[in-house]
Design brief:
CATH class of the largest domain: Mainly Alpha
Helix content: 55-70%
Radius of gyration: 18 Å
CATH topology of the largest domain: Endonuclease III, domain 1
Largest sheet: none
Structural class: mainly alpha
CATH superfamily of the largest domain: Hypothetical protein, domain 2
Strand content: under 5%
Number of strands: 0
Oligomer: single chain
CATH architecture of the largest domain: Orthogonal Bundle
């Protein structure tokens, strides 16, 4: 593992590790389809808005399943998802995904658990509304597949620090997976997100608090 990535993960583990462990315990208890819904509505918004939208969904659906989403009135879905933004688009995505999960998979994605990673990923990517990050989160969070989802924070960290200069999603993912052990990728994904939110921020990064400010090529205090 590169010294930059190693030091970032060590700092993140020390700073956020306990909370991440608790979060991992929580996400293991969620149903796969609920994970999928939360991932869809989290696009282009923050987790405060996602939680509000999820609370709204549970009020109108009871439980978040492909069947309850499929039977819900589209106007009610839009109203519930409004705090998360792009609510009309996201409501249509959820309807389409719920329809596909019911029609093609009998209402459950559990069949993916026994499939090889590449095959399971290919199946998810064929579902309209599911892109690379969403597919990888489902595979990693729900089925413990050895994959490291890349979000905007992780992409920013990788490019700023020179770990991977490419903008291509899969090139960044593969580069990080080569550096991080398969069993550590879920936690590394979460640690890097928190590091990106709190230290390596999109605007006004806190380079003075960063553990790699002396070797990071983008550091404002290493020049």
């Amino acid at each position: 593992m590169s010294s930059i990535l190693e030091n970032i993960l060590k700092y993140a583990e020390k700073t956020y590790g306990e909370n991440v462990n608790k979060f991992i315990d929580e996400i293991r208890k969620r149903e796969c389809f609920e994970h999928l819904v939360l991932t869809i509505i989290s696009q282009n918004t923050n987790w405060r808005n996602v939680r509000k939208a999820a609370e709204n969904l549970k009020k109108i659906l009871g439980t978040i399943t492909p069947y309850t989403v499929l039977s819900a009135n589209i106007v009610d879905l839009e109203r519930a998802l409004k705090p998360a933004g792009l609510y009309r688009v996201k409501s249509r995505w959820l309807k389409n995904i719920a329809y596909t999960v019911v029609k093609e998979f009998g209402g459950s994605l559990d069949c993916l658990e026994e499939l090889p990673l590449d095959e399971a990923r290919e199946i998810l990517l064929k579902i309209p509304g599911i892109g690379f990050k969403t597919a990888d989160i489902i595979l990693c969070f729900c089925f413990s597949k050895p994959i490291l989802p890349v979000d905007t924070h992780i992409k920013r960290i990788a490019r700023r620090t020179g770990i991977c200069v490419s903008k291509n999603y899969d090139e960044i993912r593969i580069k990080l997976e080569r550096e991080i052990r398969s069993e550590a990728r879920l936690k590394a994904h979460l640690l890097l997100i928190l590091f990106g939110r709190n230290i390596c921020r999109a605007r006004k990064p806190l380079c003075r608090k960063c553990p790699v400010n002396g070797i990071c090529p983008s550091s404002i205090i290493s020049k």
